[in-house]
Amino acid sequence: MRRIVLTAILAASFIAVSDAQAEDLSPLRQEMENKKKDAEALDKQYQSILERTSKNAEPVKIDPWSNMRAPDDPKAKKKQ
Question: What pLDDT shows up at residue 44?
Fold first, then answer.
């Protein structure tokens, strides 16, 4: 009789633990899912902006020595 009662108590405790883990509607879990969805949406927006800017952007040509050249320098005349 003792074994049966202990087995029933043990089985009930396993069922209670597994039932508690299966609860998907807890507020903390909902908050985590909302944050995950927001992060995915933000990442999708970021990726679309990157695609748009990389297609439209032209490479910028920079001359770091442009302010060091004399006005009659042949390289300066080529740019104008």
Answer: 96
The residues spanned by each domain of the chain are 25-54
Do the beta carbons of residue 45 and residue 51 sit within 8 Å? no
Q: What's the rounded mean pLDDT across residues 36-40?
A: 96
Residue 18: C-alpha distances to residues 11, 12, 56 (Å): 11, 10, 54
CA atoms within 13 A on the CB side of 53: 6
Let me know: does 79 contact 72? Beta carbons within 8 Å: no
- The DSSP secondary structure of 67-80, one letter per residue, reads TTS-TT-HHHHHH-
In this prediction the pTM is 0.40
Q: Which one, of 53, 56, 57, lies nearest residue 45 by Cα?
A: 53
